[in-house]
Design goal:
2 helices; 26 strands; elongated; mainly beta; ten-stranded mixed beta sheet; five-stranded mixed beta sheet
């Protein structure tokens, strides 16, 4: 009997240690289960800043009660063809709401602001770990919360994370801002000496390759305010794990038959990186009888010379064409170059 009691105490202690973490101010931050009395939230509106147009995905939300505590619980809104399915609930009280999209792209934790004596009430530092440096998803963070959808006279206030559900309406609206830049690659087949009359190209994969950096850690400072405070680069800090990374963002198998065919692929990318990155293109070469002749992979250095702007879109043209332009040998037909500009 004593052994069973000791084992139960050890398990309970392990669970408690797992649930708690230390922030910069030395406070315990606890991830709690959803309160049993909470009711599902209905997401009424989602808007997004920046100039990039991309599909909406699942949104991860972190609910911190509006008190001096340091606990919060997690949930999500799942994107469907008909709207949003709520997998997050709230009691009839006030919260501060944080989060990001897509919700399954990385790990997350919250901690109070440094030197805060109010727990999470004054704001939070959201730390996102194991984040790919490039992805096919438009990575965004929540920067404003409202109970009702925004209007011309009652818009989102950027920097306001307060959500009042004291009337138990259980409706919420979110505004997100984009943390990544967008790289758009437009691929076509060259028409050097009638190359497209002889070969067809099927693009099987595109990915960003880093030879020095692995995944990123993003620290995002979110101070609470009732005034409009736009998100600035000073609020966002990036650190990286040393290593290598291949970040795929396209695998749809687009076909290039003629010079008029264009494959468009979009990559979302940590905007402050611009050195030592490559675009890797994998493609199959077919003859006009649809026989597979060769599978190839080509790496091109990304022509970036300075830090990009988050939320902005940059376009590059890729042309697949034979190595030699004056005389076409079989080897040139079957192993073309990829030129990027």
């Amino acid at each position: 009997m004593k052994n069973k009691i000791l084992a139960m105490l050890l398990i309970a202690t392990a669970l408690l240690l797992t649930a708690c973490s230390k922030d910069e101010a030395g406070q315990n931050v606890i991830v709690e289960p959803t309160p049993p009395s909470a009711q599902p939230l209905q997401l009424k509106a989602v808007t997004r800043g920046g100039t990039i147009d991309a599909k909406m995905e699942n949104i991860k939300v972190l609910m911190a009660a509006d008190d001096k505590g340091t606990s919060y619980y997690e949930g999500s809104f799942v994107k469907t063809d008909k709207g949003w399915d709520p997998l997050v609930s709230a009691d009839a009280k006030s919260y501060h709401v944080y989060g990001y999209m897509p919700g399954d792209l990385c790990k997350v934790s919250l901690s109070p602001l440094q030197n805060s004596t109010n727990g999470l009430r004054s704001g939070a530092v959201m730390t996102l770990t194991d984040l790919p440096i490039a992805t096919g998803s438009n990575f965004c963070v929540i920067t404003s919360v409202k109970e009702a959808p925004p209007t011309a006279t009652d818009p989102f206030v950027i920097g306001n994370y307060a959500y009042d559900n004291s009337s138990s309406k259980n409706t919420i609206s979110l505004h997100l801002d984009q943390l990544f830049a967008s790289l758009v690659f437009q691929m076509s087949i060259g028409n050097t000496r009638g190359y497209s009359d002889l070969r067809t190209i099927k693009v099987t994969k595109l990915q960003i390759r880093s030879k020095k950096l692995a995944k990123a850690v993003v620290t995002f400072r979110q101070a609470l305010t009732n005034a409009e405070i736009p998100l600035t680069d000073a609020d966002i800090q990036y650190t990286y794990a040393d290593g290598k990374a291949d970040c795929p963002f396209y695998d749809e198998g687009g076909v290039l038959n003629t010079p008029d065919d264009v494959i468009k692929a979009t990559c979302f990318y940590v905007p402050e990186l611009y050195n030592d990155l490559e675009l890797v293109t994998a493609y199959d070469v077919y003859d006009k009888k649809d026989h597979l002749v060769r599978s190839s992979e080509v790496a091109n250095k990304l022509p970036l010379s300075s830090k990009l702007q988050r939320g902005q879109q940059y376009t590059f043209k890729l042309t697949i064409e034979p190595s030699y332009i004056y005389q076409l040998h079989d080897a040139d037909l079957d192993n073309p170059d990829v030129k990027i500009e």
